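Hey, sorry to bother you again with one of my protein questions. There's a protein on my desk that I can't quite get my head around. No rush at all, and the record is pasted right below.
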Amino acid sequence: MPVSRALSFSIFLVVSLAVVGGMHTYLWMRLVRDPALPEPWHRIATVALIVLAFAMPLGMIALRAAPQPLARVVPVVAFGWLGLAFMCFCVLVSVDLVRAAARGGELLADWLRRRPDPPVDPARRLLVARALAGGAALATGGAAALSFRSATGPAEVTDVPVRLERLPPALSGFTIAQITDLHVGPTIGERDVRRVVEQTNALRPDVVAITGDLVDGSVRDLGRAVGELARLRARLGVFFVTGNHEYYSGVEEWLEALGAMGIRVLRNERVRIGDPAASIDLAGVDDWSAAHRNGGHENDLRLALEGRDPDRGLVLLAHQPRGIEAAVQAGVELQLSGHTHGGQIVPFNLLVAAAQPYVRGLHRHAEPGRAGQIFVSRGTGYWGPPFRLGSPPEIARVVLTS
Protein backbone atom coordinates (compact mmCIF):
# COMPACT_ATOMS: atom_id res chain seq x y z
CA MET A 1 0.00 0.00 0.00
CA PRO A 2 1.48 3.44 -0.92
CA VAL A 3 2.52 5.64 2.02
CA SER A 4 -0.17 8.26 1.32
CA ARG A 5 -2.93 5.65 1.22
CA ALA A 6 -1.61 3.97 4.38
CA LEU A 7 -1.56 7.34 6.15
CA SER A 8 -5.09 8.18 5.00
CA PHE A 9 -6.36 4.80 6.17
CA SER A 10 -4.61 5.21 9.53
CA ILE A 11 -6.18 8.64 10.04
CA PHE A 12 -9.56 7.17 9.10
CA LEU A 13 -9.16 4.43 11.70
CA VAL A 14 -8.15 6.88 14.43
CA VAL A 15 -11.07 9.21 13.71
CA SER A 16 -13.45 6.25 13.48
CA LEU A 17 -12.30 4.91 16.83
CA ALA A 18 -12.77 8.33 18.42
CA VAL A 19 -16.28 8.81 17.04
CA VAL A 20 -17.43 5.25 17.66
CA GLY A 21 -15.79 5.22 21.08
CA GLY A 22 -17.65 8.38 22.05
CA MET A 23 -20.94 6.90 20.83
CA HIS A 24 -20.40 3.70 22.82
CA THR A 25 -19.48 5.67 25.93
CA TYR A 26 -22.79 7.49 25.69
CA LEU A 27 -24.63 4.19 25.18
CA TRP A 28 -22.90 2.76 28.25
CA MET A 29 -23.97 5.75 30.33
CA ARG A 30 -27.61 5.49 29.26
CA LEU A 31 -28.03 1.72 29.03
CA VAL A 32 -25.70 0.41 31.76
CA ARG A 33 -24.70 3.08 34.27
CA ASP A 34 -27.91 5.10 34.68
CA PRO A 35 -30.26 2.06 34.91
CA ALA A 36 -27.84 0.61 37.52
CA LEU A 37 -27.76 -2.86 36.02
CA PRO A 38 -27.10 -5.48 38.71
CA GLU A 39 -24.05 -7.72 38.63
CA PRO A 40 -23.03 -9.71 36.69
CA TRP A 41 -25.01 -7.95 33.93
CA HIS A 42 -23.34 -4.60 34.57
CA ARG A 43 -19.89 -6.12 34.00
CA ILE A 44 -20.99 -8.21 31.01
CA ALA A 45 -22.63 -5.23 29.30
CA THR A 46 -19.59 -3.03 29.95
CA VAL A 47 -17.16 -5.53 28.47
CA ALA A 48 -19.45 -6.17 25.50
CA LEU A 49 -19.70 -2.47 24.65
CA ILE A 50 -15.92 -2.06 24.90
CA VAL A 51 -15.39 -4.98 22.50
CA LEU A 52 -18.10 -3.84 20.11
CA ALA A 53 -16.66 -0.33 20.02
CA PHE A 54 -13.71 -1.83 18.13
CA ALA A 55 -15.90 -3.90 15.82
CA MET A 56 -16.27 -1.35 13.02
CA PRO A 57 -12.53 -0.59 12.54
CA LEU A 58 -11.78 -4.31 12.78
CA GLY A 59 -14.50 -4.94 10.20
CA MET A 60 -12.89 -2.44 7.84
CA ILE A 61 -9.51 -4.16 8.22
CA ALA A 62 -11.03 -7.61 7.72
CA LEU A 63 -12.88 -6.44 4.63
CA ARG A 64 -9.59 -5.45 2.99
CA ALA A 65 -6.98 -7.81 4.39
CA ALA A 66 -8.40 -10.85 6.17
CA PRO A 67 -8.58 -14.26 4.46
CA GLN A 68 -11.89 -15.90 3.63
CA PRO A 69 -14.17 -16.74 5.40
CA LEU A 70 -13.05 -14.29 8.12
CA ALA A 71 -13.38 -11.44 5.63
CA ARG A 72 -17.08 -12.28 5.36
CA VAL A 73 -17.99 -13.04 8.97
CA VAL A 74 -16.30 -10.15 10.80
CA PRO A 75 -17.78 -7.31 8.69
CA VAL A 76 -21.28 -8.78 8.95
CA VAL A 77 -21.12 -8.76 12.75
CA ALA A 78 -19.28 -5.44 12.93
CA PHE A 79 -21.47 -3.45 10.57
CA GLY A 80 -24.66 -5.05 11.83
CA TRP A 81 -23.86 -3.95 15.35
CA LEU A 82 -22.77 -0.49 14.17
CA GLY A 83 -26.17 0.06 12.58
CA LEU A 84 -27.98 -1.01 15.75
CA ALA A 85 -25.74 1.17 17.91
CA PHE A 86 -26.25 4.20 15.67
CA MET A 87 -30.03 3.86 15.71
CA CYS A 88 -30.09 3.39 19.48
CA PHE A 89 -27.80 6.41 19.87
CA CYS A 90 -30.16 8.56 17.78
CA VAL A 91 -33.20 7.42 19.80
CA LEU A 92 -31.51 8.19 23.12
CA VAL A 93 -30.15 11.56 22.00
CA SER A 94 -33.58 12.58 20.71
CA VAL A 95 -35.20 11.66 24.04
CA ASP A 96 -32.46 13.41 26.02
CA LEU A 97 -32.90 16.60 24.00
CA VAL A 98 -36.64 16.59 24.66
CA ARG A 99 -36.08 15.91 28.36
CA ALA A 100 -33.46 18.66 28.57
CA ALA A 101 -35.81 21.15 26.92
CA ALA A 102 -38.64 20.18 29.27
CA ARG A 103 -36.36 20.39 32.31
CA GLY A 104 -35.11 23.77 31.18
CA GLY A 105 -38.68 25.00 30.93
CA GLU A 106 -39.43 23.77 34.44
CA LEU A 107 -36.34 25.46 35.88
CA LEU A 108 -37.20 28.71 34.14
CA ALA A 109 -40.76 28.60 35.46
CA ASP A 110 -39.50 27.91 38.98
CA TRP A 111 -37.05 30.81 38.75
CA LEU A 112 -39.71 33.21 37.48
CA ARG A 113 -42.03 32.17 40.31
CA ARG A 114 -39.10 32.17 42.76
CA ARG A 115 -39.83 28.65 43.84
CA PRO A 116 -37.04 26.42 45.21
CA ASP A 117 -35.89 23.43 43.19
CA PRO A 118 -37.83 20.30 44.15
CA PRO A 119 -35.82 17.61 45.96
CA VAL A 120 -34.29 14.85 43.84
CA ASP A 121 -36.02 11.49 44.18
CA PRO A 122 -33.39 8.75 43.54
CA ALA A 123 -36.02 6.04 43.15
CA ARG A 124 -37.90 8.05 40.55
CA ARG A 125 -34.67 8.87 38.71
CA LEU A 126 -33.75 5.18 38.56
CA LEU A 127 -37.24 4.26 37.33
CA VAL A 128 -37.03 6.86 34.55
CA ALA A 129 -33.54 5.68 33.54
CA ARG A 130 -34.68 2.07 33.29
CA ALA A 131 -37.83 2.99 31.38
CA LEU A 132 -35.74 5.06 28.98
CA ALA A 133 -33.27 2.22 28.42
CA GLY A 134 -36.03 -0.31 27.83
CA GLY A 135 -37.96 2.01 25.52
CA ALA A 136 -34.83 2.79 23.51
CA ALA A 137 -34.11 -0.92 23.11
CA LEU A 138 -37.65 -1.59 21.88
CA ALA A 139 -37.62 1.38 19.49
CA THR A 140 -34.23 0.35 18.13
CA GLY A 141 -35.40 -3.21 17.59
CA GLY A 142 -38.45 -2.05 15.66
CA ALA A 143 -36.47 0.38 13.52
CA ALA A 144 -33.83 -2.27 12.86
CA ALA A 145 -36.42 -4.80 11.70
CA LEU A 146 -38.04 -2.33 9.30
CA SER A 147 -34.74 -1.01 7.95
CA PHE A 148 -33.28 -4.51 7.50
CA ARG A 149 -36.32 -5.51 5.47
CA SER A 150 -35.97 -2.37 3.35
CA ALA A 151 -32.24 -2.87 2.73
CA THR A 152 -32.40 -6.55 1.82
CA GLY A 153 -35.66 -6.56 -0.12
CA PRO A 154 -36.18 -5.79 -3.82
CA ALA A 155 -35.12 -2.34 -4.95
CA GLU A 156 -37.85 0.15 -5.80
CA VAL A 157 -38.10 1.14 -9.46
CA THR A 158 -38.17 4.93 -9.57
CA ASP A 159 -39.43 6.68 -12.70
CA VAL A 160 -37.45 9.84 -13.42
CA PRO A 161 -38.74 11.90 -16.38
CA VAL A 162 -36.12 14.39 -17.58
CA ARG A 163 -36.56 16.97 -20.32
CA LEU A 164 -33.42 17.74 -22.34
CA GLU A 165 -33.38 20.76 -24.62
CA ARG A 166 -30.92 19.21 -27.06
CA LEU A 167 -32.54 15.78 -27.23
CA PRO A 168 -33.67 14.99 -30.80
CA PRO A 169 -37.47 14.50 -30.94
CA ALA A 170 -36.89 11.05 -32.44
CA LEU A 171 -35.26 9.99 -29.15
CA SER A 172 -38.06 11.24 -26.91
CA GLY A 173 -38.80 8.38 -24.52
CA PHE A 174 -35.18 7.16 -24.51
CA THR A 175 -34.71 5.12 -21.33
CA ILE A 176 -31.64 4.76 -19.12
CA ALA A 177 -31.77 2.24 -16.26
CA GLN A 178 -29.37 3.33 -13.53
CA ILE A 179 -27.82 0.90 -11.08
CA THR A 180 -25.45 2.33 -8.52
CA ASP A 181 -23.81 1.55 -5.18
CA LEU A 182 -24.67 -2.13 -5.31
CA HIS A 183 -21.70 -2.93 -3.02
CA VAL A 184 -21.43 -6.63 -3.78
CA GLY A 185 -19.44 -8.07 -0.90
CA PRO A 186 -19.79 -9.87 2.43
CA THR A 187 -23.57 -9.43 2.73
CA ILE A 188 -24.65 -8.79 -0.88
CA GLY A 189 -24.07 -11.81 -3.07
CA GLU A 190 -24.95 -13.70 -6.23
CA ARG A 191 -28.66 -14.03 -5.47
CA ASP A 192 -28.98 -10.30 -4.84
CA VAL A 193 -27.17 -9.41 -8.07
CA ARG A 194 -29.39 -11.84 -10.00
CA ARG A 195 -32.50 -10.14 -8.62
CA VAL A 196 -31.21 -6.70 -9.66
CA VAL A 197 -30.45 -8.00 -13.15
CA GLU A 198 -33.96 -9.44 -13.50
CA GLN A 199 -35.57 -6.21 -12.30
CA THR A 200 -33.46 -4.13 -14.68
CA ASN A 201 -34.05 -6.34 -17.71
CA ALA A 202 -37.80 -6.16 -17.07
CA LEU A 203 -37.59 -2.40 -17.73
CA ARG A 204 -36.36 -3.06 -21.30
CA PRO A 205 -34.04 -0.02 -21.22
CA ASP A 206 -32.18 1.47 -24.15
CA VAL A 207 -29.08 1.82 -21.95
CA VAL A 208 -28.01 0.50 -18.55
CA ALA A 209 -25.71 2.81 -16.58
CA ILE A 210 -23.79 1.48 -13.57
CA THR A 211 -22.44 4.52 -11.74
CA GLY A 212 -19.83 3.04 -9.43
CA ASP A 213 -19.31 1.41 -6.03
CA LEU A 214 -20.22 -1.93 -7.52
CA VAL A 215 -17.92 -4.05 -5.34
CA ASP A 216 -16.33 -4.38 -1.93
CA GLY A 217 -13.82 -7.13 -2.55
CA SER A 218 -11.57 -8.77 -5.11
CA VAL A 219 -12.37 -10.41 -8.42
CA ARG A 220 -11.22 -13.69 -6.90
CA ASP A 221 -13.80 -13.51 -4.11
CA LEU A 222 -16.69 -11.79 -5.90
CA GLY A 223 -16.19 -12.65 -9.56
CA ARG A 224 -18.94 -15.25 -9.63
CA ALA A 225 -21.53 -12.99 -8.01
CA VAL A 226 -20.70 -9.97 -10.16
CA GLY A 227 -20.64 -12.23 -13.22
CA GLU A 228 -24.45 -12.19 -13.08
CA LEU A 229 -24.21 -8.70 -14.61
CA ALA A 230 -23.25 -10.32 -17.91
CA ARG A 231 -26.95 -11.15 -18.20
CA LEU A 232 -27.96 -7.47 -18.33
CA ARG A 233 -29.71 -6.61 -21.57
CA ALA A 234 -30.08 -3.15 -23.10
CA ARG A 235 -30.67 -2.12 -26.70
CA LEU A 236 -27.58 0.08 -26.90
CA GLY A 237 -25.37 -1.43 -24.24
CA VAL A 238 -24.33 -1.46 -20.59
CA PHE A 239 -21.91 1.22 -19.35
CA PHE A 240 -19.88 1.60 -16.17
CA VAL A 241 -17.89 4.28 -14.36
CA THR A 242 -15.78 3.80 -11.26
CA GLY A 243 -16.74 4.76 -7.74
CA ASN A 244 -14.39 5.25 -4.83
CA HIS A 245 -14.87 1.66 -3.59
CA GLU A 246 -13.48 0.16 -6.79
CA TYR A 247 -10.13 1.65 -5.79
CA TYR A 248 -10.15 -0.35 -2.55
CA SER A 249 -10.84 -3.60 -4.39
CA GLY A 250 -8.31 -3.98 -7.23
CA VAL A 251 -9.68 -1.57 -9.80
CA GLU A 252 -7.65 -2.76 -12.79
CA GLU A 253 -8.70 -6.38 -12.33
CA TRP A 254 -12.33 -5.32 -12.03
CA LEU A 255 -12.25 -3.18 -15.14
CA GLU A 256 -10.82 -6.11 -17.07
CA ALA A 257 -13.47 -8.45 -15.65
CA LEU A 258 -16.31 -6.07 -16.50
CA GLY A 259 -15.02 -5.69 -20.03
CA ALA A 260 -15.04 -9.47 -20.40
CA MET A 261 -18.73 -9.42 -19.40
CA GLY A 262 -19.52 -7.08 -22.27
CA ILE A 263 -19.83 -4.00 -20.08
CA ARG A 264 -18.30 -0.85 -21.58
CA VAL A 265 -16.18 1.04 -19.08
CA LEU A 266 -16.11 4.81 -19.65
CA ARG A 267 -12.88 6.28 -18.32
CA ASN A 268 -12.92 10.00 -19.06
CA GLU A 269 -14.43 9.31 -22.46
CA ARG A 270 -17.72 9.40 -24.30
CA VAL A 271 -19.71 7.42 -26.82
CA ARG A 272 -22.35 8.50 -29.27
CA ILE A 273 -25.58 6.60 -28.67
CA GLY A 274 -28.94 6.49 -30.36
CA ASP A 275 -29.83 5.95 -33.98
CA PRO A 276 -27.90 7.08 -37.07
CA ALA A 277 -30.31 9.96 -37.65
CA ALA A 278 -30.67 11.00 -34.00
CA SER A 279 -28.14 10.62 -31.21
CA ILE A 280 -26.73 12.05 -27.99
CA ASP A 281 -23.38 11.82 -26.24
CA LEU A 282 -22.99 9.60 -23.18
CA ALA A 283 -19.85 10.51 -21.24
CA GLY A 284 -18.30 8.93 -18.17
CA VAL A 285 -15.52 9.99 -15.81
CA ASP A 286 -13.40 8.26 -13.19
CA ASP A 287 -14.41 8.82 -9.59
CA TRP A 288 -13.70 12.21 -8.06
CA SER A 289 -11.14 10.67 -5.68
CA ALA A 290 -9.42 8.46 -8.28
CA ALA A 291 -6.16 10.42 -8.50
CA HIS A 292 -5.63 10.08 -4.74
CA ARG A 293 -6.13 6.32 -4.80
CA ASN A 294 -4.57 5.17 -8.08
CA GLY A 295 -1.74 6.85 -9.96
CA GLY A 296 -3.12 5.88 -13.36
CA HIS A 297 -6.64 7.21 -12.79
CA GLU A 298 -8.09 10.69 -12.44
CA ASN A 299 -11.35 12.55 -12.86
CA ASP A 300 -10.88 14.40 -16.17
CA LEU A 301 -14.09 15.85 -17.58
CA ARG A 302 -12.20 17.99 -20.08
CA LEU A 303 -10.69 14.89 -21.68
CA ALA A 304 -14.07 13.17 -21.79
CA LEU A 305 -15.68 16.05 -23.67
CA GLU A 306 -12.78 17.12 -25.86
CA GLY A 307 -13.79 17.75 -29.48
CA ARG A 308 -17.49 17.02 -29.07
CA ASP A 309 -20.29 18.73 -31.00
CA PRO A 310 -21.79 21.24 -28.52
CA ASP A 311 -25.17 21.07 -30.26
CA ARG A 312 -25.59 17.39 -29.40
CA GLY A 313 -27.33 16.39 -26.17
CA LEU A 314 -25.01 15.30 -23.38
CA VAL A 315 -25.55 12.94 -20.44
CA LEU A 316 -22.72 12.38 -17.95
CA LEU A 317 -22.13 9.38 -15.68
CA ALA A 318 -20.19 10.46 -12.59
CA HIS A 319 -20.20 8.57 -9.31
CA GLN A 320 -20.17 11.55 -6.94
CA PRO A 321 -22.54 14.53 -7.23
CA ARG A 322 -19.86 17.01 -6.22
CA GLY A 323 -18.64 17.53 -9.80
CA ILE A 324 -21.94 19.01 -10.98
CA GLU A 325 -20.66 22.61 -11.08
CA ALA A 326 -17.92 21.85 -13.61
CA ALA A 327 -20.24 19.53 -15.53
CA VAL A 328 -22.90 22.19 -16.07
CA GLN A 329 -20.27 24.74 -17.06
CA ALA A 330 -19.01 22.23 -19.65
CA GLY A 331 -22.48 21.85 -21.19
CA VAL A 332 -23.73 18.68 -19.49
CA GLU A 333 -27.53 18.61 -19.59
CA LEU A 334 -27.97 15.69 -17.18
CA GLN A 335 -25.58 14.09 -14.70
CA LEU A 336 -26.41 10.69 -13.22
CA SER A 337 -24.73 10.03 -9.88
CA GLY A 338 -24.90 7.91 -6.74
CA HIS A 339 -22.46 7.67 -3.82
CA THR A 340 -24.70 9.21 -1.16
CA HIS A 341 -27.12 6.28 -0.64
CA GLY A 342 -29.67 9.01 0.06
CA GLY A 343 -28.22 9.04 3.57
CA GLN A 344 -29.08 5.32 4.00
CA ILE A 345 -30.06 5.71 7.67
CA VAL A 346 -31.86 8.82 8.88
CA PRO A 347 -30.49 11.21 10.20
CA PHE A 348 -27.18 10.36 8.49
CA ASN A 349 -28.52 12.18 5.42
CA LEU A 350 -27.82 15.46 7.24
CA LEU A 351 -24.12 14.60 7.44
CA VAL A 352 -24.03 13.55 3.78
CA ALA A 353 -25.53 16.90 2.81
CA ALA A 354 -22.53 18.63 4.36
CA ALA A 355 -20.17 16.80 1.97
CA GLN A 356 -22.21 16.67 -1.26
CA PRO A 357 -24.27 19.34 -3.05
CA TYR A 358 -27.20 16.94 -3.52
CA VAL A 359 -28.19 13.84 -1.56
CA ARG A 360 -31.02 12.27 -3.56
CA GLY A 361 -33.48 12.89 -6.37
CA LEU A 362 -33.64 15.13 -9.44
CA HIS A 363 -32.42 18.72 -9.18
CA ARG A 364 -31.91 21.67 -11.49
CA HIS A 365 -28.44 23.17 -11.11
CA ALA A 366 -27.62 26.63 -12.45
CA GLU A 367 -24.21 28.12 -13.16
CA PRO A 368 -23.57 31.58 -14.68
CA GLY A 369 -25.03 31.49 -18.19
CA ARG A 370 -25.84 27.76 -18.07
CA ALA A 371 -28.20 25.32 -16.40
CA GLY A 372 -28.33 21.56 -16.18
CA GLN A 373 -29.88 18.80 -14.13
CA ILE A 374 -28.57 16.11 -11.82
CA PHE A 375 -30.21 12.94 -10.59
CA VAL A 376 -28.70 11.35 -7.49
CA SER A 377 -29.84 7.79 -6.88
CA ARG A 378 -30.38 6.45 -3.38
CA GLY A 379 -28.37 3.41 -4.46
CA THR A 380 -29.33 -0.16 -5.27
CA GLY A 381 -27.53 -1.90 -2.41
CA TYR A 382 -26.14 -0.67 0.90
CA TRP A 383 -22.77 -0.24 2.54
CA GLY A 384 -21.85 -1.28 6.06
CA PRO A 385 -24.90 -1.95 8.24
CA PRO A 386 -27.56 -3.99 6.38
CA PHE A 387 -30.12 -1.31 7.17
CA ARG A 388 -31.95 1.41 5.23
CA LEU A 389 -34.13 3.74 7.24
CA GLY A 390 -35.95 6.46 5.32
CA SER A 391 -33.98 5.76 2.15
CA PRO A 392 -35.07 2.55 0.39
CA PRO A 393 -32.87 1.08 -2.37
CA GLU A 394 -33.74 1.94 -5.93
CA ILE A 395 -33.19 1.22 -9.60
CA ALA A 396 -33.86 4.43 -11.49
CA ARG A 397 -35.66 4.39 -14.83
CA VAL A 398 -34.63 7.71 -16.37
CA VAL A 399 -36.87 8.64 -19.29
CA LEU A 400 -35.55 11.42 -21.54
CA THR A 401 -38.00 13.69 -23.33
CA SER A 402 -37.46 16.51 -25.80
In short: The chain has a mean pLDDT of 90. The longest strand covers residues 156-163.
